[in-house]
Structures are given as structure tokens and as C-alpha cells.
Amino acid sequence: MIVLNKHQIVTEQFPNGETKVKDFDQLILKNNLIEFTYREDGDLIRLLFVKKRLDEVPTESCRLLIRYMPYSRMDRKIEGDLFTLKYVSEFINSLQFDAVSVVEPHSNVTLELLANSVGIYPALDWLPQLMEKLDFSESDRIVFPDKGAAARYINSGYENSCVFEKKRNPQTGRIEGMELKAGDIPLGAKCIIVDDLCSAGGTFLWAGKILKEMGASAVYLLVTHCESRIFKGNLLDDDSPITHVFTTNSMMDTKHPKINYINLTTESYV
Q1: Domain coordinates in residue numbering, the chain
Q2: Which residues contact 204 (CB under 8 A, 6 or more apart)?
Q3: pTM of the model
Q4: Phi and psi, residue 132, nearest 5°
Q5: What is the distance between the alpha carbons of residues 90 and 100, in angstroms, rounded to a whole number?
Q6: What is the CB neighbour count within 10 angstroms for residue 162?
Q7: Which of 96-105, 139-148, 169-178 has the lowest mean pLDDT?
Q8: Is 2-120 a CATH 3.40.50.2020 domain?
Q9: Does the keyword Transferase apply (predicted)?
């Protein structure tokens, strides 16, 4: 989905699958902001068409807000697989935006590959509000599922945090174990697991079970990006250790009793 200056660009599809974009000359300003929400690969071609149309008009600037950077998990060359994040970044760079803002990039590699880019981390803003809503005390804990998440949110401003370490099968990439490497879980503690991305939710399900076994009274998940695959796992089951999921609509907006969507307002970050 493409939003230009707060208005969604209207697109259709020809019978053969080609994309038709309705002209939007009335939406073009001197300084333009494109909000890019990736749902499928066709959104990349829509982004191309919109930016090329803008290039035909004299403007002063065009900025891009990427709500979720596609292919961001493929952030290195792995034997047998393509370094697709590099290629997608090169495609976006070829469109020559004046500035690019990426919501919760999965790693710094995204920002290294994208020209004129900065990362914005709304979870750091939402976390204090969620802690207040849940009536957090010194006996409650912020939990990072791995070292990457801990490094990403090191400025959370909350000292009582815990860090897990995951053990993966090197061949399949599947998690085979998790261990609490830093921090402690007081009996009855409320816990908020914080990370950038949830797919089927296996990591958080595993962490939640361990936290409950260690004495946590409730486990919540704050994750910026959430794929629709969450409905194919067991994270949202009635007997799941996860009480509630807080996320944005950067990847989906399907309603569920256990999911609460947080509004990501453009004005706050761009």
C-alpha cells in the first residue's frame, strides 16, 4: 500500500496481473512524503510507479517512510540463498529519495544499505506507556528474547530487564532451546517481552513458557511488526502463556481478542 501526503494511492490490476495506478497529480506537493506499507512484492512495483510519476513534476523534496523493510531478515549472504535485502535496498536507492525513515529495522545492515536512511524505534516510546497501563513495579521485568533485541532497545530506560539466549539448529534454523542469561524473574512478576518482529511466534511462546515456569504472573508481548503467520502458530491460543500482544498495523490489521494495535502516527517520527 502506498500513501502520498496522507492520501492512499488508488491501484487496480489488469486481468494479466499488471498493475494500474490511477493518476494522483492533485496530491503532489512541493515537499512530498510517501508512506510505504509492504504486504506483497507488488507493492515494490507500485512504489516505483509512484516515485517515477513524482519525478515528472518539479518538486523540492520527496521523503520515504518504510513501515516495514521487506526482506530485512535476509541481511547477510548465506550459502545457498541470495542476499535479497541488498538487492531490494539497491532498488529503493535507485529511486533517489531525499530521506528514508525505516520503522524498527531488523538490523543495522538495513540502514547501512539504504542511502540517506535513519531508523525510528517507536517501541521505546510505547514501552513506558504500556508499563504505566500495566501498573509496573520494581519487581516486574522487561524481557529481551535475544542479544539482538537487547542491543536494539538498550535505551529503554528500564533497569530491571532480562535477556534470553536462543540455541538454533545450524541446518534448519529452528530454535532448540532458550536460556535466561541475564536478570532474574521474581515470583509473581509481570513481564513484557520486547522485540521488532513476530512471525508464527515460536520464540515468544518458548520464552513465555519459561517465564511462567520461573514464577511470572503474566507475560505480554510488545512487537512492532507482526506477520499474519501469528494465526498459524499457538501464540494466541487460550492456553498460551502470552496474555496479550501489542503491535502496529505495519504488516497486518486482522482483529483478534488477544491483539491490540498501537497507532503509528507519521507526524511523531517523520
Answers
A1: 2-120, 122-268
A2: 145, 193, 195, 198, 221, 223, 235, 242
A3: 0.85
A4: -65, -40
A5: 13
A6: 22
A7: 169-178
A8: yes
A9: yes
